[in-house]
Amino acid sequence: MRAVAAIVGPTASGKSDLALDVVEALAARVGVPSPEYAEVVSSDAVQLYRGMDIGTAKLPTDERRGIAHHQLDVLDPGEDASVAAFQRFAEADIDRIVDRGRRPVVVGGSGLYVRAVLDDVDLPPTDPAVRARIERRAEEIGASALHAELAATDPAAAEAILPGNVRRVVRALEVIELTGETFSSRAREPRYRRPTVQIAIDVPREELDARIAARAEAMVAGGLVEEVAGLVRQGIGRTAGRAVGYVETMAHLRGELPLDELAGAIAAATRKLARRQLSWFRRDARVAWLAPGPSLVDGAVALIDDADAAATTLEP
Question: What is the pLDDT of residue 160?
Answer without folding.
Answer: 67
